[in-house]
Amino acid sequence: MKYLLRKLGMLLFTLFVALTLNFFLPRLMPGDPAQALLGKMEGVPPEQLDSIRAAFGLDTKDSLGVQYWHYLVNTAKGNFGVSFSRFPMPVADVMRIAVPWSLGLMGLCTIISFIVGTLIGIAAAWKRETKLASFTVGFFSFIRSFPYFWLGLVFVYLFAFKLRALPLGGAYDTDAVRGSWAWWGSVLQHGILPALTICMSSIGGWMLTMRNNMINVLAEDYITVAVAKGLSLRRIKSLYAAKNAILPSVTGFAMSLGFVVGGGLVTEMVFSYPGVGYMLLQAVNAKDYPLMQTIFLFIAAAVLVANFIADIAIMFLDPRVRDGAK
Amino acid sequence: MIRDFFKTLVSNRKSLVGLCILGFLVFVALLAPVIAPYDPKADRTVTIKPLTEADRTEDELSSDTPADDEDLSTYRVTTTQDFEKHTKYFPLRAKPSAKHILGTNHAGNDLFSQLVWGSRTSLLVGLGTGLFVTFISLTLALLAGYLGGAADDIISFITNIMLVIPGLPLMIVIAAYVTMKGVFPIVLILGLTDWPYPTRVLRSQVLTLKNRDFVRVSKALGEKTSFVVFREILPNMISIVMAEFFQACMSAMLGEATLEFIGLGNLSVVSWGTILYWAQTNGALLSGAWWWFLPPGLCIALMGTAFILINFAIDEISNPKLRRR
């Protein structure tokens, strides 16, 4: 229970830090915050600048502390302001459209690549002397050094442009009736290439972590004892070695998630997939700061909550943590 | 000790390949003006050719100059050579040819020359940020790990928080506020978002070393703190510090390319990332111009592979279990 409470406290505090970063970043930049927010937006009349200041709680009349308080209260109420680029749409509504797409795409890809990568890692460590194992390790390490977005570009070129087998971008067929079978089919079809990009780039990381853990575990004495006892190799592989080797992978899940989400964002940008990442790109290009800040907040929150879930999973998986938690 | 470290690196096959790739890229970057056939931003060649042979030599001119100044200038113009300026624009969006090995882009710049010059930016940002990140994280790790107590609590707490805040979105948000001028802001942004992970790894290494017997003996003998830290602990961490350095170089290089691809970098800089940005915004994919977007990505991957190979080797050297039996 104490463990759980400590992790929960950490989650809340980290969320608070993300919120605070989001508030102070534009204000840390040299010059007037409203000016910084407007950036390169030229020819803004002074009265409009004032109204923007008011809208953002950037009124220089208020002290920084008061502004910060207003910001926290507004965020807690789910009031993220109004989007510049989709004026007068509230940022919250923009997010409501974008989030499900990203959640579906990235959530699915993360689970798939974690499972596939870990399984390949186990196999590669178990049969590490074979040519196939070293080839697989080499292949995925090489893929991992490609930038996500470039792998996406290559896939678009090969499968969508050359072979014309899959759509170039977007998330669904605009002609199909929303919610119909044909529409769901098109969603699936549009998801294949982005999903392939994310999975191909992130499988390598999971595989390497698992393989290295597994090799370390396989060198332990109790494995030798198990072999000497004449236990079946399958039993040793799955119950004795893999079960123990997977723990660091679950812990690493936390940190790698931030990386995978980042890669997923850029992949969305390449495929014009209408999720959070593509929205972020549009917000950045349009200097839509309220939208940009909210997106950052959402991504941070999602990653932090996923980490928290991983921490809980560890509690169930690792007896050391479980007993310490009692 | 660093020399010893490099000796072991060279003796390992993987890291030797990695070092060779890296060396090749450094070579290309240094000799960019020689290797690249054109200036990376040039869109035309200008040649000045004399139209006629010179009528008289300079000596003859000076020997019978008119006394009057005004006469002199007209005299000179008529008697010296005539020149012709040939301006030849490069074709736009050209396919690879003998003149342009990798074709040209939308502005008529030679893509091969851009690729060669771009290696400078990637290496500079990668190695620069790598050094910067390693410096920050090593300092924090030594402070936290060696001093312990409140310093460790504070540093570890901040590290753990920054560790889980996703780096790329943070990087994008910061870069959107900073108006880029040159390469330095990119190094700063990448450095400020990349330090937490190496700090955590290095700190735990300092902690284990701190409790080894030889360090305890050194402390018990009353050696100065600076001696214990820099002469006893640091030399024993070289391999892990180098591993973190190469890791940081790689993520910095990928981060730079990503930021530039999104259009958040300085677009007037010639780099692999900006080539990809222009390729994407000018529809290189949909016109099938593979020579535009394939080579920069392959170069990034090549550099990334070099860093990964070196890191594999360091892993194998410091963790014998991973070595082939």
List descriptors.
heterodimer; A: 326 residues; mainly alpha; MetI-like fold; 0% strand; B: 325 residues; 2 domains; two-stranded antiparallel ribbon; 15 helices; 4% strand
What would your notes on this structure say?
The complex is a heterodimer of chains A (326) and B (325). With 326 residues, chain A is mainly alpha-helical. Helix content of chain A is 78%, strand content 0%. Chain A is built from 13 helices and no strands. In chain A, helix 10 packs parallel to helix 11 and helix 10 packs antiparallel against helix 12. Chain A is globular and about 80 Å long. Chain B is mainly alpha-helical and 325 residues long. Chain B is built from 15 helices and two strands. In chain B, helix 7 packs antiparallel against helix 10 and helix 10 runs antiparallel to helix 13. Classes of the chains: A mainly alpha (326), B mainly alpha (325). At the A-B interface, helix 1, helix 6, helix 7, helix 8 and helix 10 of A face helix 7, helix 8, helix 13 and helix 15 of B.
Overall CATH class of the largest domain in chain B: Mainly Alpha
Fourth-tier CATH superfamily name of chain A: MetI-like
Q: For the terminal residues of chain B, how far apart are their CA atoms?
A: 27 Å
Helical region count of chain B? 15
In short:
The complex is a heterodimer of chains A (326) and B (325). Chain A has helices spanning 2-28, 33-38, 46-55, 64-76, 91-126, 131-144, 148-162, 181-218, 221-229, 233-271, 276-285, 289-317, 319-325.
How is the secondary structure organized here?
The complex is a heterodimer of chains A (326) and B (325).
Chain A: H1 2-28, H2 33-38, H3 46-55, H4 64-76, H5 91-126, H6 131-144, H7 148-162, H8 181-218, H9 221-229, H10 233-271, H11 276-285, H12 289-317, H13 319-325
Helix pairs in contact in A: 1-12, 5-6, 5-8, 5-10, 5-12, 6-8, 7-8, 7-10, 8-10, 9-10, 10-11, 10-12, 11-12, 12-13
Chain B: H1 2-11, H2 13-30, H3 32-35, E1 44-50, H4 58-63, H5 69-79, E2 83-89, H6 111-147, H7 149-164, H8 167-177, H9 184-194, H10 196-210, H11 213-220, H12 225-233, H13 238-262, H14 272-281, H15 290-318
Antiparallel strand pairs in B: 1-2
